[in-house]
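Question: does this match?
>
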Amino acid sequence: MNLPLLSVPFVAIVVTAAAAGCGSSSSIPSTAPSGSSGTSNTPTSSGTSSQGASGGAGALVAESRQAAAGDIPDNQVFLVYRDAKAGFSLKYPEGWAIRGKAGDVTIQDKNNVVHIVADTGAATVAQANADMKALAASTPRFSFKPPVAHPTQGDTMWLVPIASDGERIPPEAELQVQRTDDAGATWRTQHEGLPSPCYTNVLRDAAGLDTHEEPGLYLGTRNGEVYASVDGGESFERIATQLPDVLCVRAVTLR
């Protein structure tokens, strides 16, 4: 099909791609499963540190650069935070600070913040966005990009899933988006026009919407392709290829 990107109003797609190197993907903070708040257990170790035989100034420089970028080293020790009544547990790197109490806990280091809120009732996308914006306002170095949410329907949003944290490719090697129209209670897969098999992924900033009543959805992949949908994700068409690693995609409606 031909995408009506040149119709009035005109949609301009802005793509940021890396000519060299690679970006790092990041997770969107989310609220914990619904339930009453409970008492957290004492953090327990879930890993062991390892020391290699190599060292010297070069190793120290690499380690300092890694720390400055907020990356987690391969030999990082992880602890586990548990909230039995709320029904969740979370691994976090040793050395991160924990503050708050059961049901409302913040775990952070100098570059990263994980804020966990457990409450009764069903959360909405709008509520989660408001909570994260409030956290950003109180934490100067914190930046937040909300999920790919519908511009007028607060309970509709899209996510681009990966197989797992250790296997950062699409589930079953099929590039897809997951759409919810009821604030996450149910999800459905949308993949028509997206490649399969596919062994790349989409960074968080490389997915975006325009502001039409039925918004267009745009995805940029790490192998340099951009896909667009003008029907809310029901079908996609490739609109760019042979780009470098796509780090960011934005759609601007020009009237």
Q: What stands out?
A: The first helix runs from residue 57 to 68. The radius of gyration is 20 Å. Residues 113 and 223 are 29 Å apart (CA to CA).
